[in-house]
Amino acid sequence: MAEPFTPTTDTNILVVLPHPDDETFAAGGTIAKTVAAGGRATYVCGTWGDMGRRLGRPPFATRESLRDIRSKELDDALEILGCDLRHLGIRDKCVEFEDPEEIAERVRDIIREVQPTEIITFYPGFGVHPDHDALGHITVLALRGMPQAERVPLYAVAVGGEQHNFSSLGAPDVISDIREYNSVKLDALRAHASQTQAMFANAEQDGMLPRLRDEERFYVLDPDAKTMLE
After folding, report:
1. FRET label pair with 213: which of 9, 100, 191, 200, CA 20 to 30 Å apart?
2. Are 66 and 49 in contact (CB under 8 A)?
């Protein structure tokens, strides 16, 4: 049976994901819930998101302006969530081509700086997007390279469907009930306007919003276990 995520004033979560808006889609309610409980949250954003295919609806961004727009959107979303920010500055859609050990060392430095109680990333192999999988794997490597005494629980977000063998993972280990904080999450999603305007326009017909606003699910990963990328 899954454990509930119940933050306290001592909770200090570190979210390591590749794109502006990943933090809100994957863990926005959990971030808001943690901050409301008096805890802290920090987002490590891997890329600037400037290769994202959405440019607003109707389009208001260009390929040249998208980096600045998404950076501002991320700042606005994190202000709504009450979350701090660190950047890795990797080129968008290129995380898989980076030296994983080198980026893992940078993530490890942030872990030691922030001293989180939990870390959230994507489940390697179940992230759908190559950047998601690669940074999830890098986060596993970051913890793997730390002494046992310095490690904290690693929560993984799986976003695949049946076509990605998602069902093989079984039930999640941790469930965060975010119903009290879903309005905060939705406001943060709206702040990522270049990426979410079309989603909100179609939300009612495709049933997206109920899936986003009720709970967030996490699997606990063992950093010493091989990931699907090894």
Report:
1. 9
2. yes
